[in-house]
Each structure stands twice: as structure tokens, then as C-alpha cells.
């Protein structure tokens, strides 16, 4: 067993870390305040090849693996969790299902420009009445000649409004609401529109919107996978997506720890740095230990996927553990900063707000437990 990252992975980490520090961190607080997505940052990620890390070169990617991808999401999230999830949703939720289930034509048309960062992808599963119970969706699609007509709406869509196309799930058998199919829906298809933009507690520079289908015309060739296979496509996509969120959570927690350690070394009370006082030093030790455990789970799940081994349970575990770690560590980081941590003068309050979503999206922590326990007992 070898826990040392390869030179390739270390180089990628350093490259993303430098980029994140120079190009992402300086505006992170302002973008959060203004709820502003910055297309320039996405374009620069594309120039560095970050938008296509795990995809083969023939599809515009850099031909690396899922471990490299989670390292990139982690390093971005260490300074800006919004940038981390933009890349995560683009790669795991939109790129992955096209790579896995797409025809050669669909890969050339959709995966390649996504990998090159010329187009942005999104994923539409959740509906107003169907969150954790993803199988209860109402959005439907009926075949009419050479196209499908979609009606319904999806909510809480990461990259909503900035994506060029979305992987959308809809009921295709009116007699069986469980029989769903996946579609690639372009933003310019007739009947497609972007609805309400959410105002959020955290990840505020990552746009989250509703997407609406009103007699939306989707060409037959934009069916992704087989008719009736949609739920499987959605679930398998989330198996990997969840590990991207685990990486985001690890990055958020690490960013909060970095800030807390630096502050604790500088801040003096009772005649010495608070880092030299056990109440704080033990806190830092616990934070670092939890982060390391979360990181190992995340890297393990990514490694399993890269090796072609089963990773669904491990990915649910990494998201569960890393999400809780991010919430705990960021809350403690605010505590280390005391009153200053509660202000916008320091980044830890943003990290704490950003951490919360990692316990909710791509399956709540309760759903992760359900997935893990079902796999243990099946
Ligand atoms: N891989 C392959 N197939 C799977 C699967 C998986 N991981 N999980 C389920 N399936 C298959 C089952 O084998 C079953 O197939 P058969 O009918 O052929 O037997 C079928 O799917 C139905 O499975 P279940 O009976 O387990 O379905 P369920 O209704 O009990 O639901 C669930 C399972 C795990 C609770 C699921 O609904 C779920 O994951 N819910 C959470 C939804 C979620 O994570 N939403 C996140 C939205 S995306 C998001 O958040 C993005 C963002 O903003 C960044």
C-alpha cells in the first residue's frame, strides 16, 4: 500500500494551489458578498486544463484520473467553495454521464467542449416535490416524431443560468412514474428557460436556479442512455458526484484550518499566543486529524473509481464524513477567531456558511447513511 501521491498528482496540486491563491482567492469575499459568478475564472481554469481532468484527450480532456480531479476541487475549495462546486458539477454531474452513457456523437458534441471549457454543464434532478425521494419526479417527456416534448421544472440547479446544457431526468412512461430517461437539454432549445435564482447562505458566487420546460423540444438523439434507464444514470452519476462534494468539503475545512492556525500563532492573550494554550492547540489538533481522515476517505473513493473498482459506498462515506468534518472544523475555526471570526474581516465565517451545503446537496447526510446501510445489508 502506498499513500504517497504520484509526481503527476503533486504537480497538479501545486499548479491548482498557485492558481487558486493568485486568481481565485483575491476576489472570493467580494464575489460571495455580491453573489457574483466570474466567467474569467472559469475561462482560466479551462486554459489550465482543469475543466477536463479525467477525460481522455480525444474528448478534449487531459487524460488524468478522478484522484487528480478531487485534488483540484479540494485546492479550489480551500480558498473558494463556489469555484470548487462550479468545477465539480461541471465535471461529475454533467461530464461524467455523457462520458459513461453518451454515444460517440454526443461525446464529441457535448463532452469535448465541456472538457475544453468552451461550454459549461449542469444537472437537473431535484424538483419542488422531489428532493431526497428522487424517484418521485414529475417532469415528463413524451415522444412526438423525431423529438421529445418535456414539461416540468427542476430546482436548486448548480451552474443554473450559466450552463450551456443540462443533463435532465424526466418520466417517459405515463403509466409508470418510476420509468424515467435522461436527456441532454441545450439552453437554446425552444421551451427551455431559466427561472428563479436562489439567494443562499453560502456558495453565493455559484449560481443556483430553477430550470423550466414548457413544451420544450428536445431532439430524439439527445436521449442519454436507454429509454427507462434515467434513474440508473442519475444514481450512478451521483455515486461519483458525491466524492466531488467530499473533496469540496475537505478543501473548505483545510482553508478554515489554515486561517485558524495562522491566527492562533499571532493572537496573544494572557501574555502568549493562543496557539500555545491548550484550549486552542487541542482544538487545532482535532481539526487537523478530522481533515486528514476525510481526505483519506475522499482520495480512496477517487482511487477506486480510477481503478475501475466499485466506489459507490466509499463515495457516500467520504461525502458523509467530509461534510460533517467541514461543518465541525469551520465552526471551530470561527471559535478560534472569537469575535473577529464572526465578522467579514476574516474568511472563516464564509467557510462556515459554505460548509453547510456539503451536508445537504448531492444527497443529504441522511441519504448517505441510507445508501451506505443498504449496501451493507443487501
Ligand atoms: N447505481 C445503479 N443503480 C442504482 C443505484 C446506483 N447507485 N441506486 C439505485 N439504483 C437502481 C436500483 O438498483 C433500482 O433498480 P431496479 O428498479 O432495477 O431494481 C432503482 O435504481 C431504484 O432504486 P431504489 O429502490 O434504491 O430507489 P429509491 O426510490 O429507494 O431511492 C435513493 C434511492 C438512494 C434514496 C435515491 O432516491 C437518492 O439518491 N436520493 C437522493 C437524491 C440526491 O442525491 N439528490 C441530489 C440532487 S443533485 C445536487 O444536489 C446537485 C448539486 O446541486 C451540486
TrEMBL record:
Residues 6-118 form the Acyl-CoA dehydrogenase/oxidase N-terminal domain. The keyword Kinase does not apply. The keyword Cell membrane does not apply. Residues 123-216 form the Acyl-CoA oxidase/dehydrogenase middle domain. Its cofactor is FAD. Keywords: FAD, Flavoprotein, Oxidoreductase. PANTHER family: ACYL-COA DEHYDROGENASE. Belongs to the acyl-CoA dehydrogenase family. This is Acyl-CoA dehydrogenase. It comes from Metabacillus herbersteinensis.
